[in-house]
Design brief:
Keywords: Membrane, Transmembrane, Transmembrane helix. The protein is an alpha+beta fold. The protein has one domain. An eight-stranded mixed β-sheet has the order 1-2-3-4-5-6-8-7, sandwiched between helices. A hairpin with a 5-residue loop joins strand 5 and strand 6.
Length: 222
């Protein structure tokens, strides 16, 4: 093999490695959404601000009546864990999850139903979804109070459609609902909508790996 061929092969391998690194986690989540799991990693005392944005967000949620529950970590195949602070406001029938993204605090309001339906409203960009058992959408740059008001209206839509609310506002209930959301609920569809691109690029990369290995085998067999 000439030096030029060697560098070409190394560049090809680097491209494959990059494609797999970027896309294999999403591809695995697409294939098996139930591999997305939640676990409790902290209690009420650990729901503490980590910066100015988090401090302001938690203060605003406290003013609305939200009480801290604890800290959850979401794990996905071959991906870093994502930690979220979890609060609840049973009177409004929802959880609030807050996570730090750079210097920002991202808020999601979540309401679960006993039949697997769900409502999610965020204060950041989130694709709008309007399905029989799942309502979701983002209100970028909105205050927690504005997000909560929009979330309440969405809750009522599913209640009026006959979906029974899950009235357990504990960390264990949130973990259980999170698992069900991805294993057999509307989260399966959501993950597959988001990760179809990862599946396509990971598949292309694996095909290239097969072609590369087959080429090496042919050269060795000469």
């Amino acid at each position: 093999m000439s030096q030029q061929d060697l560098w070409r092969s190394l560049g090809f391998l680097a491209l494959i490695a990059y494609l797999l690194w970027r896309n294999l986690p999403g591809a695995l989540a697409f294939v098996r959404p139930s591999w997305i799991r939640w676990r409790i990693v902290g209690g009420q005392e650990q729901v503490a601000p980590g910066g100015p944005a988090m401090r302001e967000m938690l203060a605003e949620l406290g003013d609305l009546g939200f009480e801290p529950l604890g800290v959850l970590a979401e794990s996905r195949p071959l991906a870093r864990q994502r930690r979220e602070l979890v609060l609840a406001l049973p009177e409004a029938r929802c959880f609030a999850t807050v996570r730090a993204v750079g210097n920002e605090a991202w808020l999601s309001l979540v309401t679960d139903y006993t039949d697997g339906a769900a409502v999610i409203t965020t204060d950041f960009h989130c694709p709008s979804i309007d399905e029989a058992d799942y309502l979701a959408g983002g209100l970028p740059a909105s205050s927690p109070a504005e997000v909560l008001n929009a979330h309440k209206r969405r809750i009522e839509r599913l209640v009026e459609a006959g979906h029974p609310l899950d009235d357990r506002f504990t960390l264990d209930a949130r973990v259980q609902a999170g698992h069900g959301f991805y294993a057999k609920g509307p989260g399966r569809r959501e993950v597959r909508r988001k990760e179809i691109r990862g599946l396509v690029f990971a598949t292309i990369a694996l095909i290239w790996v097969g072609m590369f290995v087959a080429g090496i085998a042919r050269n060795l067999g000469r």
